Amino acid sequence: MFSINHFLVLSFSLFLLAATIGCVSPHANASTAPRESLRPDYEVVYSPEIQPGAGFDSSKKDLEENLRHIVLYPDICPALPFYIDKTIVYDDRTEIAWTNHCGTNPKMGVFILDNYKLFKARIVVEFRTVGHGNIRYEINFPDLASLEFDNLPSAKKVADVLFSMQNQEKKADSERKSQLVRFESTAAQYRGLKIKLPVAEEQRKFIVQANALSQQKKYAKAIEQYLKVIELNPTSYPAAYFNLALLSAQNNNPLSAIHYMKHYLLLVPDAPDARGGQDKIYEWELMINQ
To answer: What does the pLDDT read at residue 9?
Structure first.
C-alpha cells in the first residue's frame, strides 16, 4: 500500500511540474533549447517559410487583413502602437495607412514599405517578454518600423508573405546579375566599333515619349518606353540605360537603378558623366543597406 501511495504522489507531482512548464509562455513548445534573441527582452518564436501554392492574390490578402498595429522609428508614440486603418499591397511596395490615437489630437499618415527594403532584412516573428498588454508579437525592421500583432497565427501569415516577397526580390536580383554578365560581350563588341549604329526613327519616337512622361513624373510609364528603345537595339542609344537608372531610382527601385547604370558604364566607360554614374551607384547601394 505504501508503494502505491508513493507512486500516486510522484505521478501527481510530475503532472503539476509538466503543467507549470507548459504555462511559462504562450508560445512554448516541446523544445527545451534556448530561443534566439535579436533584441533585449525579445525572443524569436517563428522563422517564416515559403508556403506552397500561395499566389500573389492570396498573399496580398493575408498581408492586408492581418496587419493591425505599427510602431514607427523614431517612436513618436511610446505608450501605444498606431492603429492600421488600411493596407494596400502593390507590386513594388506596401502602403500602410495609420492613425495616431495616443495624443489629444490624433494624426494620420502612411508608411511605405518598399520591396527593396526587404532585400537584406531579417524577417522573423519576435515575442516581447517584458511589459504589459496583449500586443507582443512583432516583425521588426530596424530604423524603419515594427509591425505588431496580438496573436501568433496572424504574425506568422504576415511573416510568410514578407519572406516570399523577399525571395522574389532576391530571385529578380540574381536574374539581373546573370543578364549583366551576358551583356558584357555585347558591350565589348559595341566599344570596338569604329562607327556606331545610329538611333532608328522608331527608337527616337520612344525616347521623345519617355522624356515627356518623365517630365510629367510618370516614371513607370517612362521606364516602359525606354525599355522599348533597348528592345529594338540594346546598344545604339547607351543613354537609355543611364535614364532607366535615374527613372528606376525615382520609382524607388535602387536595385534596378544599379543594374541599368552598370549597363551604361559597360557601354561607355569613358563618357563625361561616367564618374557621376558610378557615384550614383554608391548612393543607391547605401539606400539598400540602410
So the answer is: 38
Q: What Cα–Cα distance (Å) separates residue 164 from each residue in 28, 56, 76, 253, 268?
A: 26, 10, 30, 18, 37
Cβ proximity of 145 and 47 under 8 Å = no
> Residue 138 corresponds to which cell in the numbers above?
512583432
Neighbours of 149 (CB within 10 A): 24
Is 288 in contact with 166 (CB distance < 8 Å)?
no
Q: Which residues pair with 83 in a beta bridge?
A: 69, 99
Full-model pTM: 0.80
Separation CA 253–CA 215 (nearest Å): 19
Burial of 224 from C-beta contacts in 10 A (0-12 / 13-18 / 19+): middle
DSSP designation for 40: T
Percent of the chain with pLDDT over 70: 87
Amino acid at position 176, single letter: R
Q: Is 63 left (phi over 0), alpha (psi -120 to 50) or beta?
A: alpha
Let me know: does 165 contact 55? Beta carbons within 8 Å: no
For 115, which DSSP code? G
Give the neighbor-by-neighbor strand order of the sheet with 125-128: 42-46, 125-128, 137-141, 145-149, 69-72, 82-89, 93-100, 107-114
Mean confidence (pLDDT) of the chain: 86
Q: For the chain, state the CA radius of gyration.
A: 27
pLDDT in tens, 250-285: 999 999 999 999 999 999 999 999 999 999 999 999
Question: What CA–CA distance (Å, rounded) separates 19 from 239?
Answer: 69
Tell the burial category of 247 from Cβ atoms under 10 Å away from its Cβ (0-12, 13-18, 19+): buried
Q: In one letter, which amino acid is 219?
A: Y
pLDDT of residue 42: 95
